[in-house]
Design brief:
Strand order of the largest sheet: 4-3-7-8-9
Structural class: alpha/beta
Largest sheet: 5 strands, parallel
Order of helices and strands: HEEHHEHEEEEHEE
Number of strands: 9
Strand content: 25-35%
Number of helices: 5
Radius of gyration: 15 Å
């Protein structure tokens, strides 16, 4: 994978969704077939031998890559969504992020104790969303959890939010 090529496919959007935020827009990467295939192949290579049974994607941009990876890894896909979007019994977790306070949910029957989970989102900023997702998975006590991001904003120190010993990986560091 050509990291510089991939970095150039990610658009910075100033003052979105609020003033002072530089939003990393991956839709420009997703629309480029060569970039998308390169990223998918790289992520596949990293996780193909880990025994992944479920890939969990966080609403909404995390859904895209997570579902593609689930297909490629021959694993199931599980969404983590905003409140009220999942139709069956859920667990929920509230957290702080760079914009304020939010909540996410997962179906209670989505993950089992036998699962090996790849938890994926597009960007690691402060870590609030992914840490909440990780806590949600704790209700199901899967056999193993791997955490992955397309982009990590190193200056925000989000990696520090996770427990030591948890494998946290990002494809691109900015």
């Amino acid at each position: 994978m050509d990291e510089e090529f991939i970095k150039k496919q990610i658009r910075d959007v100033m003052d979105f969704p609020i003033k002072g935020i530089v939003f990393k827009d991956i839709t420009t990467l997703l629309k480029n077939a060569d970039a998308l295939q390169s990223v998918v192949q790289e992520l596949y290579e990293r996780y193909k031998d880990k025994g992944i049974t479920k890939v969990v994607g966080i609403e909404s941009r995390g859904f895209v890559m997570a579902s593609i990876l689930a297909y490629k890894l021959k694993a199931g896909f599980v969404p983590i969504r905003k409140p009220g979007k999942l139709p069956a019994l859920t667990w929920s977790e509230s957290y702080d992020n760079e914009y304020g306070r939010d909540t996410i949910e997962i179906h209670q029957d989505a993950i089992s104790t036998d699962d090996v989970v790849l938890l994926h989102d597009d960007v690691l900023a402060t870590g609030g969303t992914m840490l909440a997702a990780y806590r949600l998975l704790g209700h199901s006590a899967p056999r193993c959890i791997y955490v992955n991001f397309l982009v990590e904003l190193e200056a925000l120190g989000g990696r520090k939010a996770f427990p030591s010993g948890l494998e946290v990986d990002s494809l691109i560091k900015c």
